[in-house]
TrEMBL record:
<comment type="function">
    <text>Catalyzes the transfer of an acyl group from acyl-phosphate (acyl-PO(4)) to glycerol-3-phosphate (G3P) to form lysophosphatidic acid (LPA). This enzyme utilizes acyl-phosphate as fatty acyl donor, but not acyl-CoA or acyl-ACP.</text>
</comment>
<keyword id="KW-0812">Transmembrane</keyword>
<keyword id="KW-1003">Cell membrane</keyword>
<keyword id="KW-1133">Transmembrane helix</keyword>
<keyword id="KW-0444">Lipid biosynthesis</keyword>
<feature type="transmembrane region" description="Helical">
    <location>
        <begin position="12"/>
        <end position="28"/>
    </location>
</feature>
<dbReference type="GO" id="GO:0005886">
    <property type="term" value="C:plasma membrane"/>
</dbReference>
<keyword id="KW-0808">Transferase</keyword>
<keyword id="KW-0443">Lipid metabolism</keyword>
<keyword id="KW-0472">Membrane</keyword>
<comment type="similarity">
    <text>Belongs to the PlsY family.</text>
</comment>
<keyword id="KW-1208">Phospholipid metabolism</keyword>
<keyword id="KW-0012">Acyltransferase</keyword>
<comment type="pathway">
    <text>Lipid metabolism; phospholipid metabolism.</text>
</comment>
<comment type="subunit">
    <text>Probably interacts with PlsX.</text>
</comment>
<feature type="transmembrane region" description="Helical">
    <location>
        <begin position="124"/>
        <end position="143"/>
    </location>
</feature>
<dbReference type="Pfam" id="PF02660">
    <property type="entry name" value="G3P_acyltransf"/>
</dbReference>
Length: 204
């Protein structure tokens, strides 16, 4: 158990546990009285919170969706900030980033189920690769405006981020970026199948 006294291990555990907090589920239950895991797509993310709560209260849905998006993004950054000021290595920071996303997507509080990881991934990437993330956010915003399919916009933005990371930082080890990308694509497999069938719903 000596590894628990290792600073890096402590940050890794914290990243996973904090990343796993299902803010969307908690907010929707507390303020709208609905279980997002049992409605809509079953995801705990902002898009499903917006979709499910909107059926009851459109105004509240926007607030809870925005709050879920913000909190899911911030929770990954929070541990990164503490670790950064504690003086850990860049490799450790990347480990924290990856584990934050894993925590959200495979939450220990939800039987290792979770959300799609987009907001949490966006948060940690904004900390680690700000320029690439800004490019991805622009791509996402354009997709959200013109395509209006949340999953497609997110996956297109993720692809743009990965490509941009190879162009802007060709010297860095891209394994953590690719791992996070793989996790997000894996969690979107049902969406990808629906996209191929033309069945994915638009955000209205």
């Amino acid at each position: 158990m000596d590894f628990l006294f290792n600073t890096n291990a402590q940050f890794f555990i914290a990243a996973y546990l904090v990343g796993g907090i299902p803010f969307g589920l908690l907010l929707a239950k507390k303020f709208a009285g609905v279980d997002v895991k049992a409605s809509g797509s079953g995801s705990i993310g902002a898009t499903n919170v917006l979709r499910v709560v909107k059926e009851r209260d459109p105004s509240l849905a926007k607030k809870l969706g925005a709050a879920t998006l913000a909190l899911d993004a911030i929770k990954g950054v929070l541990v990164l900030l503490v670790a950064y000021f504690a003086g850990v290595s860049e490799a450790t920071l990347w480990g924290i980033a990856v584990l934050s996303v894993i925590g959200h997507c495979f939450s220990p509080y939800l039987g290792f189920e979770g959300g799609k990881g987009v907001a949490t991934g966006m948060g940690v990437m904004m900390f680690m690769l700000p320029y690439e993330t800004i490019i991805a956010l622009i791509v996402w915003a354009l997709g959200a405006k013109f395509i209006r399919i949340s999953s497609l916009s997110s996956l297109t933005a993720l692809t743009a981020l990965i490509v941009a990371s190879f162009i802007i930082h060709p010297e860095m080890a891209h394994a953590p970026v690719l791992i996070i990308g793989f996790i997000l694509f894996y969690k979107h497999i049902p969406n990808i199948i629906r996209l191929l069938k033309g069945e994915e719903k638009r955000v209205v």
